[in-house]
Design brief:
13 strands; 13% strand; TIM Barrel; alpha/beta; three-stranded antiparallel sheet; 464 residues
């Protein structure tokens, strides 16, 4: 095990750090950084005002290890980016990542989640740099064996990926390791990725040796795989599931209701780690009617805080992951969980009403996870879906020329489309090759959705 290096000259003293940041008043503006995902739909203006507590974070105890884990977990899927100095592409803004990481630790966040697949393979390396500057016993690192590509299903390739995670993260043990995206492509993929090649047996031995402290899996897709893994005699330390107030009872056909997933874990006393509490950002900015419903209860709380309260209220939730690219989002989420105010039955009923309104819109179920990227033909797939969904939320969508709002909706959709997605990366350039489809954990028929959005755009252009 690594020893804490208290005297490391790069280590940041907690009190000194808080003094420099003014106890939470410093912020990184959205205009100065770029995300390796798309910008979260919760704008900086939505962040709740008020002090950011440093000593009120809610913690949950892992029954398997006794770990005291912060209810807010930091997901390193959507890190800030800046253009490279040579103008050739972009790179992770490590200085900003360091500041966000330092701020999170100083305010009680201690669970950090990454994957070899995130940020075009650069996330683990960035996390390793940011966390190495702090004592090893002050945080928990979670990463994944992300061998999605059949080229990485061999034992040799999977082992290489596993060992590379240690190198990139600069650690000699992992606090939490996940089999990544179990359920995608069904039982055949489970056998190919983990069972037939002996990798699962290897990981179990690594847990025995202490190089993995907690072994679990993240789930999307075929529920038969989820049920199968829970039926084995393997003692899973934790499981990561998609949970929010829409997916609780109304998961899309390709996923499973979180109410069922959570219930099965609870029966077995397996802690749940939560992903997609905002459903890819779409629950952070609701339509006018939904917003009014929530404002009846709390004029100050924003839509994102309601979603995070829902995700954190079940008692067997260990931590709730959020990909916080911007300081405003980090501060807002810290407030929500410092401490958590669990939802009442009446508030849960209210969120179910909001969920029904949400389901009445024809959203694309994209969570901007980026697994479909890069597109071989250069499309910005998450960007197209993000703009389309945003316009639905803001009322800038109409296919009826007789609508009184049609002209405004048409103008805002088309202008915003060109601003947010470069023309050569828009839906009309999709050739329907389908290479993206197997990688989507939401099982979106991406070519069909691209065609549908392109037809809508062409319709808007014709009806000038």
């Amino acid at each position: 095990m690594e020893k804490d290096n208290i005297n490391d000259k790069h280590e940041i003293n907690r009190r000194k750090f808080l003094k420099v940041l003014g106890g939470g008043t410093a912020a990184v503006t959205a205009a100065t950084i770029y995300s390796c995902g798309k910008k979260d739909m919760a704008s900086a203006g939505n962040a709740a005002l008020g002090e950011v507590p440093t000593d009120k974070m809610t913690y949950r105890t892992n029954p398997k290890t006794g770990d005291k884990v912060s209810l807010l977990g930091y997901g390193f899927m959507r890190l800030p980016k800046i253009p490279k100095k040579d103008g050739n592409g972009d790179e992770i803004d490590q200085e900003t990542v360091n500041k966000l990481t330092d701020y999170a630790l100083a305010h009680g966040v201690n669970y950090f989640d990454t994957s070899p697949a995130y940020c075009e393979g650069r996330s683990e390396h960035s996390m390793g740099i940011a966390l190495k500057r702090h004592p090893r016993n002050k945080y928990f690192i979670a990463t994944k064996l992300s061998n999605f590509d059949p080229k990485t299903w061999s034992r040799e390739a999977s082992l290489a990926m596993y060992h590379n995670s240690f190198k990139e993260l600069q650690v000699d043990y992992l606090d939490y390791l996940l089999l990544h995206g179990i359920g995608m492509e069904g039982m055949d993929a489970l056998h190919g990725r983990y069972l037939d090649n002996g990798i699962l047996d290897f990981l179990l031995k690594e847990r025995e040796a202490g190089r993995i402290r907690n072994l679990g899996f993240s789930y999307h897709g075929d529920v038969k795989v989820f049920d199968y893994l829970l039926s084995t005699d393997i003692k899973w330390d934790f499981v990561q599931i998609q949970l929010n107030y829409v997916d609780w009872k109304h998961a899309s056909d390709w996923n499973t209701n979180a109410e069922y997933l959570y219930g099965e874990l609870k029966k077995r006393n397996i802690p749940a780690v939560i992903m997609e509490p905002l459903r890819g950002g779409k629950l952070a900015q609701l339509d006018y009617k939904s917003t009014e419903i929530l404002k009846r209860y709390d004029q100050e709380a924003n839509a994102a805080s309601w979603a995070f309260r829902f995700a954190g209220s079940p008692p067997d939730v260990l931590t709730v992951l959020s990909g916080m690219t911007y300081m405003e989002h980090l501060q807002d989420n810290i407030r929500t969980y410092s401490p958590l105010k669990p939802l009442t039955d009446k508030e849960n009923e209210t969120l179910e009403q909001v969920a029904q309104l949400y389901l009445s819109h024809p959203f694309v179920a994209c969570t901007a996870c980026q697994y479909c990227m890069p597109c071989p033909y250069g499309l910005d797939i998450p960007g197209v879906f993000s703009h389309y969904n945003k316009c639905l939320t803001e009322g800038n969508y109409s296919d009826n020329v007789k609508d009184e709002n049609y002209k405004k909706a048409r103008r805002d959709f088309l202008i915003g489309y060109d601003r947010n997605v470069p023309r050569l990366r828009q839906a009309n350039h999709c050739i329907g090759c389908g290479q993206c489809r197997p990688h989507c954990p939401q099982h979106i028929n991406i070519p069909d959705e691209m065609q549908r959005i392109d037809k809508y755009v062409e319709q808007l252009k014709r009806n000038a």
